[in-house]
TrEMBL record:
Protein known as: ATP-dependent helicase/nuclease subunit A
Cofactor (UniProt): Mg(2+)
Signal sequence bounds: none
Lineage: Bacteria, Bacillati, Bacillota, Bacilli, Lactobacillales
Residue ranges constituting the UvrD-like helicase C-terminal domain according to the UniProt record: 512-812
Function of the molecule: The heterodimer acts as both an ATP-dependent DNA helicase and an ATP-dependent, dual-direction single-stranded exonuclease. Recognizes the chi site generating a DNA molecule suitable for the initiation of homologous recombination. The AddA nuclease domain is required for chi fragment generation; this subunit has the helicase and 3' -> 5' nuclease activities.
Assigned EC number: 3.1.-.-, 5.6.2.4
GO molecular function, one term: 3'-5' DNA helicase activity
Reaction catalysis annotation: ATP + H2O = ADP + phosphate + H(+); Couples ATP hydrolysis with the unwinding of duplex DNA by translocating in the 3'-5' direction
Keyword annotations of the record: ATP-binding, DNA damage, DNA repair, DNA-binding, Exonuclease, Helicase, Hydrolase, Isomerase, Nuclease, Nucleotide-binding
Superkingdom of source: Bacteria
Entry keyword DNA damage: yes
Binding annotation for ATP: 31-38
Length: 1259
């Protein structure tokens, strides 16, 4: 299809325009951060629709449900706008039809779409269509454990199998938990593959060595050889850097000679690896010994000593790295390694067999329980779409249906899909590359979900293929419309040095670099990125210092530094550009976000920022299960399940639920000094049950124990009969624990936590697990897997507070000012430290355990795949850094810590003389933190000039790069000094200074005009001041005076808003009686009247109302706790029966199906009709809310009625007029409201006077 010409005034860039209109083949849009990919995707959908495609002929796959909802909303908004602008009638009808089709359009996550496929084509795979989706990770884990326990028991009973050897190889003497972790991990990893069984069958292929020649196979050629080349090239470069420093003086000849010899060795080893001479390299490595390093002479100049020290830094680095290489890659000869691999292969095959058995049993159990998990949805969908026939995979009728239905398949966040999902997409799209209809958009530099088994390699494969127009086309959106140039330049400076194919999985070339697209930011010198380094080396502290301030950890130091910087930004009125207002404004707390790698420091952030008086919004502190009230409740539930658990029992007894102190606990234990503590509790109870002995102390303790045991017996009985939800609520009611915690500090939060436990139990009851024991196990599993429940926050999303979130949570968001915290945190490489590692291409890498001698030996597949895994982990860490930095619109702060400034420059300076732009691969792979990467990427730039390293930047691209930044080192003394400055002036001092200030006479006309203007504003009166003394909401009962008899002019009486009252809302003069008074005195007439109304609402109108029937209704209300017995006694049954004996009462009973009782209503009225002195031009409205006792709705009209329990018999014939005078206005308002609601006339309005039985017509 021909691409239309882009108008000159188009808001799209050329690349965006191309991404909207390009079609006819598969298309990959690589959309950098802030490049408007969602806008492009929505525009592409709209243009497809405008050209005749229906919205339900498109499949749009998003990564989250929230993204799907947003996509639908944006498409609907764009359609509505297009409809408004469209003049062609036929096209307009087409667009309007899309609005109707949108709700059922396929715009969803891949899992939601899979669910639709399964619901429609379940018969193709013989699946019962009635099933429940497993969405709770904890329920899944428990179900897997139960199945595994059964499978494991059967395997232990096998003879002539390797299962016991497998168990011994991956478990310890105490438990076989290691084997459990292995099988579960392998199961999860295999299930991400479209064909898990096939992958498991090939699990040990890397351990098969052809003709025992190590260098001939995939292991060496594709893995070991490239890895060793990277290492040796880096070693040679470091050695040559030391040689170069030594060339500065003849006095360094000895040091230079040592480094030269070692550089020569590294080059020899490098050539040997390239020539596949593994054995020769092995012998050289094992026999080589480093010479003793020669220090500079004592008499040498300081410059010579410094140069010798720099050489030693480089030498130490490559020496240590060489030792690591020798230990890993050359720990054994090729023959020994091949022998280890042969011995390991049978265990790998057994590993695969056991995993297949577990998979089969787990699948059967899910089928029995009619449940599926998310992974099942994907595999079942793939089975529906394609089947293996005639030695090849073929599409089914389902695949054919969707390929014909969908004109285009659009995938958002394509970098985060896996191979299984890729296969599903294949069977939904056109198979021919010539007319491909797959549109993919994403940014591989933001792929940070490997823990969900996302595979960015799929994106990268197409990224490379489509560059050469092979199988599709590639479009790159590089323009960033989010951030200032200062931020983008700094990001580019870092990543042109850090990211390439070897570390990062892709080259950060010109096409990948960020380009500033939004140019309206005002020019300034204040927005360059800042690197803040806390020096954690302890300084001497002045003991006489009056400020009690000290920093115990590096985390506190970093956070204090950040807090002070935030206060500095706020107090200085730092300017940020508001894109909506299109001008600068002063920064607010809500403009700032703190990005953290994990949530572990959230509690510290909350505590420290509270001290600094900085408002904070934390999404999740992950400490719910650590709160006191939840700990107590969980201990109690454990005791109810099994009281013979000493620690939970002691916790409950010591808690406010029982209230024992340590002396009382000791007294119990003295009664029975051995055995379970619960036996001691029972022994104490039995000993003091029938005797008055032991003194007052023991008797008081006995009463507490008696009550506890009584409650425990009751709760244990209820746990067997009732649900967990009912049990927890019973505990709350029996102990008053909810009310108790509500009276503690942070009581509102504590009550919310207890309610959350109740709700969590309710969710648990919906799972396939039942019973208290399983619930306790359920919660313990959540804690073990860090699946904590978040505490509800006391700050709303709209509040002016600093945000705190993880880097993962920040993806897709943007903030004017970003602090990236804890950058010195060591990389989490735990996956490379286990005994095994999985790879989707090469299978498994694992060590070999000699069970006879209980020794572990590394294997080369293990070494190679762990190195590959480390590359993947570090590539993701690099992408996380990219995501974090690209959240910033205007100002970026990078926060870390080092022992001191010298230590930082020493670590960063290892690359200072590196010649190429990209830093050495091995140096990046051996880095231990993001800050090390950042420092090494800055050190060659002119703005990183320092007193510790020579100006050795020789790379022109880095030296002349336009990025700007600053590096600040802060120690505890400086932070302490800042705290002093903030604490210097107390309240009395500033008041004294204010009194001592001199009056200044203004003579400048401009100042005088400003002062006059300020005084005018101060003294100004608000035009609608009367409205401030009213409210926009009133209930009918609060404005009864409005409904009295109209005044002489025929208008309703109004409320005088100038009359004194206690609030800005007109309320009744009398308050409701407090609950405690109703419990100790006789019911009032008003309370009896309210109770009578309740009875009138509750009466069954389908039955004749006799005295017995009315009494039955009243007693039912008493039993339900809705009426007290005292109030029920005072209800006059005869007045109710008399009412139903009237003609109107009989009409209600006769037409009971048309009667509506106790109906709330709201009516919007002009405020001027209700309150005096309201300004007419203000146009204020007031919302009146009330409740009608009842009405009968007929086809053409309605009858309104209201019960009145006022005592009127003593008024005689005047009762009718008095009640009309009192209630005519109110009933008029009810009538008006009812006519508006029903849109039909109210022909009769009645006051039902129960006291005298009269039915009064209201005209």
């Amino acid at each position: 299809m021909k691409i239309p010409l882009k108008p000159e005034n188009s808001r799209f860039t050329d690349d965006q325009w191309l991404a909207v209109y390009e079609s006819g083949h598969n298309l990959l849009v690589s959309a950098s951060a802030g490049s408007g990919k969602t806008t492009v995707l929505v525009e592409r959908v709209i243009e497809k629709i405008k050209r005749g495609t229906n919205v339900d002929e498109l499949l749009i796959v998003t990564y989250t449900d929230a993204a799907a909802r947003e996509m639908k909303e944006r498409i609907q908004s764009a359609l509505q706008q297009a409809i408004t602008q469209e003049n062609n009638l036929e096209q307009k009808r087409h667009l309007i039809r899309q609005i109707a089709l949108l709700p059922q359009a396929s715009i969803s996550t891949i899992h939601s779409f899979c669910l639709q496929v399964i619901r429609r084509y379940y018969y193709l795979i013989d699946l019962d269509p009635v099933f429940r989706l497993l969405t709770d990770d904890t329920e899944i884990a428990l179900l897997q454990e139960d199945v595994w326990n059964e499978v494991r028991e059967e395997l232990y009973g096998e003879e002539n199998s390797l299962f016991k050897e497998l168990t011994a190889s991956y478990s310890n003497d105490r438990s076989d938990a290691g084997l459990t972790d292995l099988i579960f991990s392998l199961y999860d990893f295999a299930r991400a593959n479209p064909h898990p069984d096939t992958w498991l069958n090939q699990l040990g292929d890397l351990y098969m060595v052809e003709d025992d020649q190590l260098t001939h196979g995939t292991l060496y050629q594709h893995l070991l050889k490239p890895q060793l080349i990277d290492i040796l090239e880096n070693l040679a470069e470091l050695a040559l850097a030391a040689v170069k420093i030594g060339e500065s003086s003849d006095e360094l000849d000895k040091q230079r000679e040592i480094a030269t010899q070692e550089a020569s060795l590294f080059n020899q080893l490098l050539e040997g690896i390239r020539a596949d001479q593994y054995e020769q390299v092995f012998e050289q490595c094992r026999s080589f010994v480093f010479d003793r390093w020669k220090a500079a002479k004592r008499s040498a100049d300081e410059d010579i000593k410094e140069a010798a020290g720099e050489m030693k830094v480089f030498r130490d680095q490559y020496k240590n790295r060489f030792q690591e290489m020798k230990e890993h890659y050359f720990s054994a000869s090729a023959a020994d390694q091949v022998e280890r691999m042969k011995k390991t292969l049978p265990l790998i095959q057994e590993m695969a067999r056991v995993t297949r058995l577990f998979t089969q049993a787990y699948t059967e159990r899910k089928r029995e329980r009619h449940v599926l998990d998310f992974n099942d949805l994907e595999h079942l969908t793939l089975n529906i779409l394609a089947q293996f026939q005639d030695e090849k995979w073929q599409g089914t009728e389902a695949s054919l249906h969707y390929r014909e239905k969908f004109k285009e398949v659009m995938v958002d966040e394509y970098q985060d899909i896996n191979q299984l999902q890729e296969n599903i997409l294949f069977w939904l799209t056109h198979p021919n590359e010539e007319d491909g209809n797959l549109f993919m958009v994403g940014d591989v530099k933001q792929s940070i979900y490997s823990f969900r088994l996302a595979d960015p390699g799929l994106f990268l494969q197409k990224y490379e293929q489509y560059r050469d127009h092979h199988k599709g086309e590639r479009i790159i959106l590089a323009d960033n419309f989010r951030s200032r140039g200062e931020v983008l330049d700094f990001i580019n400076l870092l990543f042109i040095q850090l990211m390439d194919r070897s570390v990062g999985q892709m080259a950060y070339d010109d096409a990948a670099q960020l380009v500033q697209g939004f140019t309206a930011f005002p020019k300034t010198d204040d927005h360059q990125p800042e690197i803040l380094i806390y020096e954690k080396e302890v300084e001497d502290i002045d003991e006489e210092d009056p400020i009690d301030f000290s920093i115990d950890t590096k985390t506190e130091g970093e956070l204090t530094m950040v807090g002070q910087k935030i206060n500095e930004l706020i107090q200085s009125g730092f300017q940020v550009y508001d894109k909506q207002l299109k001008r600068n404004r002063a920064i607010r707390y809500a403009d700032i976000v703190l990005l953290t790698p994990t949530k572990k420091n959230n509690a510290d952030i909350q505590s420290l920022f509270k001290q600094l008086d900085i408002p904070l919004l934390v999404n999740d502190t992950q400490n719910y299960f650590q709160t006191t009230e939840i700990t107590i409740m969980m201990s109690l539930l454990k005791v109810i399940d099994n009281p013979y658990q000493d620690i939970p029992l002691a916790s409950v007894l010591r808690s406010p639920l029982v209230g024992l102190d340590e002396n009382e606990l000791a007294a119990i234990r003295i009664t029975k000094k051995t055995g379970d503590y619960f036996d001691a509790v029972k022994a104490f109870y039995d000993e003091y049950r029938n005797e008055q002995r032991g003194g007052r102390f023991n008797q008081q303790l006995y009463l507490k124990i008696e009550q506890f045991l009584s409650q425990l017996t009751k709760w244990r009985e209820e746990a067997r009969r009732e649900s967990i939800v009912e049990l927890i609520w019973t505990i709350y009611e029996d102990t008053g624990f909810l009310d108790y915690v509500g009276g503690m500090s942070s009581g509102r939060q504590r009550k919310a936590n207890l309610h959350a436990l109740y709700e969590r139990a309710s969710s648990y009851e919906k799972t396939s697990f039942k019973g208290l024991f399983q619930f306790v196990r359920f919660i313990e599993r959540m804690q073990k897997k860090d699946k904590d429940l978040a505490e509800p926050t006391a700050i709303s999303e709209d509040e002016n507070a600093v945000r705190v979130m993880t880097i993962h949570a920040s993806k897709g968001l943007e903030f004017p000012v970003v602090f990236v915290l804890d950058l010195s945190k060591r990389f989490n490489l735990q996956d490379t430290q286990q005994a095994y590692v999985f790879n989707e291409r090469y299978g498994v890498g694992t060590d070999f355990k000699d069970l006879r001698y209980r020794l572990r030996y590394t294997t080369l597949p293990e070494i190679a795949l762990k190195a590959e895994k480390k590359k993947l982990l570090l590539a993701e860490e690099m992408r996380k850094l990219y995501v974090a930095l690209t959240r910033a619109e205007e100002k970026l702060f990078l926060v870390g810590s080092y022992k001191n400034e010298a230590a930082a420059w020493k670590e960063w300076g290892l690359v200072s003389s590196h010649q190429p732009t990209v830093l050495p691969a091995d140096m990046r792979l051996t880095a231990n933190s993001l800050m090390q990467w950042i420092g090494q990427a800055m050190v060659r730039h002119p703005q990183a000039k320092n007193d510790y390293l020579p100006a050795t930047a020789v790379n022109g691209e880095i030296r002349h790069h336009q990025a700007t930044f600053s590096i600040t080192f802060v120690n505890e003394e400086e932070l302490k000094a800042n705290m002093k400055e903030e604490s210097t002036v107390d309240d009395e001092q500033w008041l004294e200074r204010l009194d001592q200030t001199e009056t200044v006479k203004l003579t400048d006309d401009a100042h005088i005009r400003s002062l006059n203007e300020a005084m005018h504003l101060i003294e100004a009166t608000y035009d609608y001041e009367a409205a401030t003394r009213t409210t926009s909401y009133q209930s009918v009962s609060e404005v009864k005076r409005l409904f009295e008899e109209p005044d002489d002019s025929g208008r309703m009486a109004k409320i005088d808003i100038n009359a004194p009252r206690l609030s800005n809302r007109y309320t009744q003069d009398r308050l409701e009686r407090p609950a405690f008074m109703t419990q100790i005195t006789a019911p009032t007439s008003a309370e009896v009247g309210t109770a009578t109304h309740l009875v009138m609402q509750s009466i069954d109108l389908s039955q004749e109302q006799t005295e017995e029937q009315i009494e039955k209704t009243i007693q039912t209300l008493v039993q339900k706790g809705l009426l007290t017995k005292d109030v029920a006694k005072r209800i006059r049954r005869e007045t109710i029966q008399r009412f139903f004996d009237t003609t109107f009462g009989q009409q209600i009973l006769r037409d009971h199906e048309l009667v509506y009782r106790e109906r709330p209503f709201s009516l919007l009225m002009d405020a001027g009709l209700i309150f005096t002195d309201m300004e007419e031009k203000a146009g204020d409205k007031i919302l009146i809310h009330g409740i009608m006792d009842g009405f009968i709705e007929y086809k053409e009209d309605a009858i309104l009625f209201d019960y009145k329990t006022d005592r009127v018999q003593h008024l005689g014939e005047q009762a009718r007029e008095k009640m009309l005078e009192k209630y005519r206005g109110q009933m008029g308002l009810y009538r008006t409201a009812l006519e508006r609601i029903l849109n039909k006339p109210v022909t009769h309005t009645y006051l039902c006077l129960l006291d005298n039985g009269e039915i009064v017509t209201v005209e």
